[in-house]
Every structure is written in structure tokens, then in C-alpha cells.
Amino acid sequence: MPINFSSHETNFIPSGKSGLRNWIKNLIITEGYSEGDLSVVFTTDEYLCSLNIKYLGKDYYTDVITFDYKVGVIISGDVFISVERVKENSELYGDGFYFELYRVIAHGILHIIGYNDNDAENRMIMREKEKFYLDKAFLQGLI
């Protein structure tokens, strides 16, 4: 099953798609799941905010929204990412653009797998998972 990258209302598509695709597959397998149909869509603040309002009832900018279509251990879903938020957050936190991009992608996929960041304990677990997978991406020379 494929992992697809596309853009909506922006021209951004990440460089090194094959390495990114393999990194995502490894994340899914390491978590004990199998790859299904997964779309990563790069978009704008405005479009992501409109999804946030329409589907989550939240009227603010965010960096990632996921739609989970997981069936059993097959990870399928849509991960929508605001390229503008990624850029701004990478500057705010002093991390490189691709570091932040990979963090957000990991975050979205971890949500589909079942991790949450709805309280302090779950946020800590999510951050530890993100760091683990970012370290792998760094060691693979992806970020």
C-alpha cells in the first residue's frame, strides 16, 4: 500500500521523498503496525484552519491535522500539514525546517497509531516518541 505526498493550495513537496517514505514505513513497523493507504498533504495555514473549524470545531491555526482510517493494525489515513506553521515553528524553536517537518509528520502518524497529547502525561509520551523517530531520521542523514 502506498504512502503518497501531495500539496493543496501550495507548491511544496519535500525533497528526498523516497527516504521520507522509508522513514515513515519504519516508524509504522517499529510501532507494530502495517502500512496501508497513507496520504501526507502539504497545505496552507488557511486551509488547515478551515479543516480545524469544520471537523474539530476549533478556530485556530495548527501545524497538523490527521484523519484516521486505521483498520486493525493497518495504518491508513490523511495527514494534513501547514507548511507555513512548520516554517514558523522551525524559526521559533531554532530547528531546521526539515527537522520540524519530520517532527510534525511523526506526530500525525503517531496520532493515527493511537497516541494522544491531550494531557501532560500523554504529551510527554508523544514528545519521547517524536524524539526517538527524529533521532533515527538524523542518523539516516534525512534531517
In short:
The chain has 143 residues and is of the alpha/beta class.
Structure description:
- This protein is an alpha/beta fold and 143 residues long.
- The chain has a single domain, classed as Collagenase (Catalytic Domain) (3-Layer(aba) Sandwich).
- It is built from 5 helices and 4 strands; from the N terminus they run E-H-E-H-E-E-H-H-H.
- It has helices at 17-30, 45-56, 83-93, 97-113, 120-139; strands at 3-7, 34-43, 64-68, 74-82.
- A 4-stranded mixed beta sheet has the order 1-2-4-3, sandwiched between helices.
- A hairpin with a 5-residue loop joins strand 3 (64-68) and strand 4.
- The longest helix has 20 residues, at 120-139.
- The model has no long low-confidence stretch (mean pLDDT 96).
Topology:
Blueprint: E1 3-7, H1 17-30, E2 34-43, H2 45-56, E3 64-68, E4 74-82, H3 83-93, H4 97-113, H5 120-139
Helix pairs in contact: 1-4, 3-4, 4-5
CATH superfamily: Metalloproteases ("zincins"), catalytic domain
User: Would you state the CATH class?
Assistant: Alpha Beta
The ordered string of helix (H) and strand (E) elements is EHEHEEHHH
* CATH T-level fold name: Collagenase (Catalytic Domain)
**Alpha-beta classification:** alpha/beta
Number of extended strands: 4
